[in-house]
Amino acid sequence: MTKPDTSNRSSAAQPSPTPPLPWWHSAVIYQIYPRSFASSGGGLGTLTGITDRLDYLRDLGVDALWLSPFYPSPQHDAGYDVASYTDVDPRFGTLEDADRLIAGAHERGLRIIIDLVPNHTSDEHPWFRAALEAGPGSRERERYWFRESDERPNDWRSVFGGPAWTRVCDRPDAPSSPWEDDRHYYLHLFDSTQPDLNWENPDVLSSFEQILRFWLDRGVDGFRIDVAHGLVKDPSLPAWSGDMSMVQGAEGARPPMFDQEGVHDIYRRFNEVLAEYDGDRMLVAEAWVNPPERLARYVRPGELHQAFNFDFLCTPWRATDLAEIIRTTRDTFAAVGAPPTWVLSNHDVVRHASRLGLSVTGKGPNGIGAHDEQPDAALGLRRARAATALMLALPGSAYLYQGEERGLPEHTRLPDQLREDPTFARTQGAELGRDGCRIPLPWRSDAPAFGFSPDGETWLPQPEGWEAFCVDRQEADPDSTLNLYRRLLELRRTLGLGEAEAEIEAVGEEELRVRLHTESDEIQVFTTFDAECSLAEDLEVLVSSAPLTDEGKIPADTTVWARRR
What we know:
This protein is an alpha/beta fold. The protein contains 16 helices and 16 strands. It has helices at 9-13, 34-37, 47-51, 54-60, 95-107, 126-134, 202-217, 263-275, 292-296, 310-314, 319-334, 352-355, 377-393, 422-426, 471-475, 481-495; strands spanning 28-32, 64-67, 111-116, 146-148, 165-167, 184-187, 222-225, 282-285, 306-307, 341-343, 397-401, 501-507, 511-517, 522-528, 539-544, 559-564. An 8-stranded parallel sheet has the order 9-8-7-3-2-1-11-10. A 5-stranded antiparallel sheet has the order 12-13-14-16-15. The protein has a 3-stranded antiparallel sheet with strand order 4-6-5, with no helix packed on it. Strand 12 (501-507) and strand 13 (511-517) form a beta hairpin. The longest helix has 17 residues, at 377-393. The chain is globular and about 80 Å long. It starts with 8 loop residues before the first helix and ends with a strand.
């Protein structure tokens, strides 16, 4: 008798193994602002300067690097005015330098994410130059938002201040042509040198598909989408007199230039392009969108993979507020099957080591000057260490901004005449802008420019006293912020906190507790605010952002990770 074939029975009876989650689901991603990270010569940072410090970044314990723009650019907005999307600005290096950086990162187990700036180009981009020369009604002008009108087409304001429309004939390079460009305006939600692209034009989408493939073919692992919520505008261009930083107006109305439905069609196509490549390539949105349910729509299956959690960054330093935003973020993103993200600092906001030292915490001002309230440096750093220890315990993906791992503060006394942020000029100094968080990094306490560049040049001046934030000083101090970050990142990885299940509880206004359930352990996280709190005697402290009191209590403004003995 022939025996029945049972060769597949045992495997069929076994449950299918759960596929591993993609790397970005719980990654810690380190933002590099290339102008200010490290230079191989001259006042601007370079790609070679980054490559030379890849070992430092590997040893820090991060999983990936996100690089702000390094494309050719006139640098009117620090590189976010892109003149070519498929090359490297000679001030930063060459395409070959970019290839060496990508390869060097991969050799060290680090992924590379680069900035994509699809809302606008530089006015020096060949597309815009062709649009100016081609004149009204041309196919070239259809790439942008040109409109004919006797006055500005509407009342929209630039995010950087001033009107969001510029008349073509008012430009110093206005073409001499028979067309009446004195009645033609173009839209720019940011600086007048950053004309907005018209994503209703299919040529724009096809061009960016090619741009994505250009960098994916070179090995990049993902893209951060600048102004992800702004690509599509209401074509009727209705009036909007609200603050241009708003993402939701009165009674829930959305601004006609932000968070329009059409952006989701674009990101579904972007997702399809990335799916053509192996290695779990990813897309992360910079989208200032409220309420959280609207933001979660960007990370639905088939669209983007992550979205920055700016609500967490903007939350005041209070237990109840933080507990609420952590729970809301977790639940809202879980509902669409996406991981939450956490961030405290980036290139657009006052550094959290300074922001948390102000009398009013939260998002903070748009820059701090010499005549403004000066942060309490000691208090700000203490809270920043506690906030970071809380953030790195949370499940999901976390983003760090260069220098925060050493407790780097904002430059709060930068002379106004040296400021480069277009916000400062466009608001006539009413808003100082973002230069204070973009100062070139210090590396060595005994070197010119603290080791930022071999010749001592810096594009913005470093303040005095930054020796304390140099790597050589911090590596020699076991209690330094750098060594705290290294311990936190190592423990986060070994304990598997990025994929843990979390319970969050605010104990009054003075304590926030997070209970993390991993596959093999339970970790308890305690964050204090204005008062100390007790710690159970049967708990073993794994790491603390500040020393415990002599009585074994957790002091104010401190985070502790612990587990049962």
